[in-house]
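ok so for the tutorial part 2 we go from a plain amino acid sequence to predicted structure tokens. step 1 is just haveing the sequence, like this:
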Amino acid sequence: MSTTVFRVSGLTSSLKRALIGRAYATEDLSRERLPKRIALPTFASDALSSVAYAPDEILLTLALAGLSAYAVGPWVAVAVVALMVMVVLCNRNNITEFPQGGGDYTVVHETLGRSAGRVVGSALMVDYTLTVAVSISQAAAYMTGALPVLHGWEMHIAIALIVAIALINLRGVRESGRVLAIPVYFFMGSIGLLLLIGAVQAILGDIGQAPSADYTIVPDAAFDQGLTALGGGFLVLRAFSSGCAALTGVEAIGNGVPSFRPPKSRNAGLTLMMLGGIASTMLLGIVLLAGATGVRFVEDPTVHLQLDGKPVTEYQQIPVIGQIAQAVFGTESVLFYVISVATGLVLFLAANTAFNGFPNLASALANSGYLPRQLRLRGERLAFSNGILVLAAVAIVLVWATRAEVTLLIQMYIVGVFVSFSLAQAGMVRHYTRALRVQTRLRQRRRIQLSRGVNAVGFAVVTAVLVVVIATKFLQGAWVALLAMAVLWLVMTMIHRHYTVVRRELELPHDQDGAVIRPARSHAIVLVSRIDKPTLRALEVAAATRPTTLEALTVADDDVDWRTVAAHWRELDVHVPLRILYSPYRQFRAPVLTHVMSLLARNPRDVVVVYIPEFLVGHWWEEFLHNQSARRLRAHLAHLPRVVIATVPWQLGSAHEVAGRMQDSVRTTARTTR
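step 2 — the prediction. this is what the tokens look like for a chain of 674 residues:
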């Protein structure tokens, strides 16, 4: 390895320390456990933030049938809240029975089998990625709504926010939780104040009107008769499926149970119940206030909005919560900007739930052999750094591809989470059925039967909702999520198959009894291009290993003057035979490879050790001034069986300087990590 690599490594290490802080020891992991007051904003910010876009999607979908369809909005919200209650109750059972973490994936993997487990794993990974893209894109929309000068820069803002939250999470679970807790509680308090004051104003009859209240909604041509006939019912189901985005993030608590303080299951269950109650109250309250303030929210204001019978040309539509805040507090009120900032912040932080859940899930999948093993390792701050980086990269690509269009992203959303919900409830039913077969105590049997009944009802409900989601969103974009899930499932299957094949090839035979198979003979070859210090050191190292045979090897090509080498060899009286290989086509690799294979052919238990002398330079540009044939030869030798490649380095003067600085950097790093 060149000392240039050491220099780059030292620079990278210093930059990493500046961005994410000093490394944590493994025994510090117990200190990273979260109390409920930190766990709630850490794992629930996704579900809590869904109230910032779920009402928007409900009203936007119903607007296709005109203003009269808005009367159905509160009932759609009630249906979503009822589903939220069912999912929370079912997931609490999941947490109690499977406290080791992994959430729906662990439940399905252990109860329904590996193939079904991969389905849930792929579904949740797609859902987590879309959570980041949707939340961050909506946060960018709120920022441009509060600051119109930023309008048109939503995609760039979203990408910058993803990078920022990835860096925060790379600093560790506990530290990111503390950083993100205050904004989440700030959002909860702001929305609570908005709902309280809005409810009082509505009761007293003096609530203001939203800035879009005077506009008329132009229904889509397919729904010019309102919600009548089959098409109207289908539109209501589509609005319901869009509102079900409020359920995303509920599963994150089950995935992150190991991050809670003991008793983990109890604390995670209580956090889940608090999450369900708060999110349901916010969602229903916002939809009701949207109706009371006359909010109009459509997909394209220039097409679907009119004022005094004329199309709207200059109108920047802001999200539903922003319009309600303008009606309740006034357009120029400081509280309007407070609500906008709080909502934008929590949408930004909602991605934090995915940045906690995705790496934990990826680690569980990697432990099962379905993803690369690098994803199961914790980084220097005890977070799953590789998972965080993968999630950030994929989310950035998704935001860039969709130009941060929330309406486009939301159509791909929630399919994955309902796939995992459905299979997890089926797995819990099987889990409780197995438990009943071995349980004899009457009291315990009743508890198990009650829990199984809850999960059975949950399975029926969420499966029906899954069918509705796929049927109503497939052509709008859900097919993209389903295709991504299928591709991920196939990739995980192939990775697992690869690891299985590798393990079988590397494991010892059953009749081996742990004995080590020693090679019959060891043939050592030292490559020689000239007689110099690196070559003599390589000869000394090779001789010290006491191989069966030892020879020096040089190739007579345009790069080597073999006559000079042979003459110098005789002058030094080196007690190692020098073999000269003729290369009529001026190739270096082919003669060496042919000779090595001839040695291997003598006995299937022989090994060949090739010693390659190499001198190291201190500057990157010096690398290009020297022959790279030895490095290319290493790449070819590595694919030959029973061949060992040994590089014998020799540091030049400039390399010694860099190596010294590298040693000082290593000592400094070792002191800072203690």
